[in-house]
Amino acid sequence: MALISSDRLRYPCEPWKLVENIHVPGDEGTLETLFALGNGHLGIRGSHSTAGDGELPGTFINGFHEIWDIKHAENAYGFARTGQRIVYVPDANNFTVSIDGEALSLSESTVLDYHRSVDFSTGVYEESITWACRSGATVTTVERRAVGFDSRGCLGLELSVSADRDVSADITSGVVNRQDQPVEDHSVHDPRRSGRHAGRVLLPLHLQGSDGSLRLAWETSESRQRVAMAVDHWISAEGQPFETLVAEDESSVRYVLAIHDGGPFRLEKSVSYVVAGSSDDEDRGESLAADAEANLVSFGDILAQSKAHYEQYWTTADISIGGQPEMQQAVRWGLFQLAQATARAGVAGIPAKGVSGSGYEGHYFWDQEIYLLPYLTYTNPCGARKVLESRHAMLPDARVRAKELSVDGALFPWRTINGLEASAYYAAGTAQFHIAAAIAFAANRYEWASGDDTFRGELGADLLIETARMWASLGFFGKDGMFHIHGVTGPDEYTAVVNDNLYTNVMARFNLRAAAALEHEGIADTERMVWRQAAERMSLPYDPHLEVFSQDNDFMTLEPWDWNTPRSKYPLLLNFHPLVIYRHQVLKQADTVLAMFLQWQDFTAEEKQRAFDFYDPITTGDSTLSACVQGIMAAEVGYGDVALQHFTDALFIDLDNSHGNTIDGVHIASTGGIWSSLVCGFAGMRDQGEVLRFDPRLPSEWDGLSFRLKVQGRLLSVELSQGSMALGLVSGQDYSDEPLAIHVRDHLVTVGADGVTVPLDTVPVPPPSIFPSVFPTAGLPIIR
């Protein structure tokens, strides 16, 4: 059932905000994700601060995790041995407000007016509630939150309380260790959700507090990572806190005072987090807490940082859709989430849920290279480079892992935080070797698009060479003279451990070609020759009967899925044993179609259309990574209505909680796919060729589409309307004004500061493909 799009009274459509005007119990967990704040390093869920009014509140720091020994029912050589899971850091978003002895809460008190919002233009969360107290007073509480950007470990919270008469107020500001609170392990029922640790995770190192200030530090019990926090309070009234209490799982600062009619009472709470590895120092907790204290900044400074960051961000990252206000709001929410997941991540990966939740254990997947790096590369190339630096830092562990699986070069983990493989189910984890090509592809794209002359020598060559060595040793030249890659799983996790997965082979071919083209002293002539031969002889399964590239060698022989299966049985992974799914012709997500999008120059228009026509109807969309890719290829093929439907599905995955697990955090890779849907789908951008290319497919319902891209040191402005495309270079001290050659359909144009407008004809809708029966014997009477 839809959420945001279904009730525009409760969630009005505003272009620069997500707003909730009516509180309705039951959606708290999903809304905690939708109203979350973050900066890529630190994230806080959009929970109500009062105890009992939240479902899954919490605060996260990217990469801060605990480990445990994976217990396999039947162990085998090379299985992942150590699990990793993001840890809730102690949460400062806790306030209790009692008025004349009544503790205010949404679940127990009378609410006269309710309004909360997150402002995309400033990054500020605001919640205003007017209460009818049992004492007869009418009280309004207003909370504001923001995260720091220059001070990326900092969080600012503000609570103001006003009343229509004199009241007695008892206000407590708390810090809660949520990681060690008893909570149900939801992963037992849904592998997409985060599990819980059996024992205590955060061990106290330093606990000190007085006069409204807290200095606290903990260490994880197994990974030995440390987190410290400093918390200071400021109040608008005179006086000191009534009490300051410190404990390992809950610390608090309490104020007891009178609030008079005429002016609000304000409480500002400044929070600073610092994380570090283990230490042998005797005062390790105290010194880390001192570091957190040194980084504290005021609530006002945090607000200013957030506003300044987003003012700059939107000048280059905004995407405008003409005449579609609901889509416009959803697109800006998505772009806001991308900033929150990546802006200040530093040299670190981007978790599958950003820092908005604990879903997928906080792991880094291939998602970041295929779905997030395009957005980062063209809007924040420095951020893209840092993600690739984090992958480069994993190379030592990846080389060890490669030897463990009897291949050369480097084998990157399918899912990880610390660089080690954490996927306990190898068939849909380790077997997805294609992550190596994703990393190589992202590195090549970054170098092509950024104009970063130092990247290849410092990072890029290592990533391309080590992954190429892995492919050359993983595959083999068969009796047919072709190069084969066996025993792998492609992006479609409903078909596992297969031979010659088309996506894997196509991307490996790219990887081998790119590495062979390098001028590098570390590449021997014989090695380069092997790479070139493997690429040129790469086996690409093709079904001549259907005239379609096959997803793998055996896919076309599988039994078709029963499409009368009721919708309640989807997603299939929650309702059928993997072996049942593996035996059938059914896709979790785009696979062959994705290969044709990424390696667009290797396939003809007819091949792309037939592949789309064949695979789109048998793709369940059980993966949130699928709809955006299906929409991009539908647009390229010329199916405008289908493209718009897939795009709309992708756009509202989280806002409407259409996959039922938004509670665990934003599907940040899918959100990155929205950026690609707009730029690569409807604007038709393709890169890594001789020049940047555009082949637009603007939906007929839209008045226009405009955005900006950072390309090879320039800032390119793109404005697409019905019948034309305008391109220009935006001047500025950070950007070159040297003209840029761009292909728009059949036109090669030179774009400078004056701009170029290219007329566009309407693209005709092609007739759909007609396939012969998959099974020649279908329809014959059964011989008994």
Automatic annotation (TrEMBL):
<dbReference type="Pfam" id="PF03636">
    <property type="entry name" value="Glyco_hydro_65N"/>
</dbReference>
<dbReference type="InterPro" id="IPR017045">
    <property type="entry name" value="Malt_Pase/Glycosyl_Hdrlase"/>
</dbReference>
<dbReference type="GO" id="GO:0004553">
    <property type="term" value="F:hydrolase activity, hydrolyzing O-glycosyl compounds"/>
</dbReference>
<dbReference type="InterPro" id="IPR005196">
    <property type="entry name" value="Glyco_hydro_65_N"/>
</dbReference>
<feature type="domain" description="Glycoside hydrolase family 65 central catalytic">
    <location>
        <begin position="332"/>
        <end position="675"/>
    </location>
</feature>
<comment type="similarity">
    <text>Belongs to the glycosyl hydrolase 65 family.</text>
</comment>
<feature type="domain" description="Glycoside hydrolase family 65 N-terminal">
    <location>
        <begin position="25"/>
        <end position="274"/>
    </location>
</feature>
<dbReference type="InterPro" id="IPR012341">
    <property type="entry name" value="6hp_glycosidase-like_sf"/>
</dbReference>
<keyword id="KW-0326">Glycosidase</keyword>
<feature type="binding site">
    <location>
        <begin position="588"/>
        <end position="589"/>
    </location>
    <ligand>
        <name>substrate</name>
    </ligand>
</feature>
<dbReference type="GO" id="GO:0030246">
    <property type="term" value="F:carbohydrate binding"/>
</dbReference>
<dbReference type="InterPro" id="IPR037018">
    <property type="entry name" value="GH65_N"/>
</dbReference>
<feature type="domain" description="Glycoside hydrolase family 65 C-terminal">
    <location>
        <begin position="685"/>
        <end position="751"/>
    </location>
</feature>
<protein>
    <submittedName>
        <fullName>Glycoside hydrolase family 65 protein</fullName>
    </submittedName>
</protein>
<dbReference type="InterPro" id="IPR005195">
    <property type="entry name" value="Glyco_hydro_65_M"/>
</dbReference>
<dbReference type="InterPro" id="IPR008928">
    <property type="entry name" value="6-hairpin_glycosidase_sf"/>
</dbReference>
<keyword id="KW-0378">Hydrolase</keyword>
<dbReference type="InterPro" id="IPR011013">
    <property type="entry name" value="Gal_mutarotase_sf_dom"/>
</dbReference>
<dbReference type="Pfam" id="PF03633">
    <property type="entry name" value="Glyco_hydro_65C"/>
</dbReference>
<dbReference type="InterPro" id="IPR005194">
    <property type="entry name" value="Glyco_hydro_65_C"/>
</dbReference>
<feature type="active site" description="Proton donor">
    <location>
        <position position="493"/>
    </location>
</feature>
<dbReference type="Pfam" id="PF03632">
    <property type="entry name" value="Glyco_hydro_65m"/>
</dbReference>
<feature type="binding site">
    <location>
        <begin position="366"/>
        <end position="367"/>
    </location>
    <ligand>
        <name>substrate</name>
    </ligand>
</feature>
<dbReference type="GO" id="GO:0016757">
    <property type="term" value="F:glycosyltransferase activity"/>
</dbReference>
<dbReference type="GO" id="GO:0005975">
    <property type="term" value="P:carbohydrate metabolic process"/>
</dbReference>
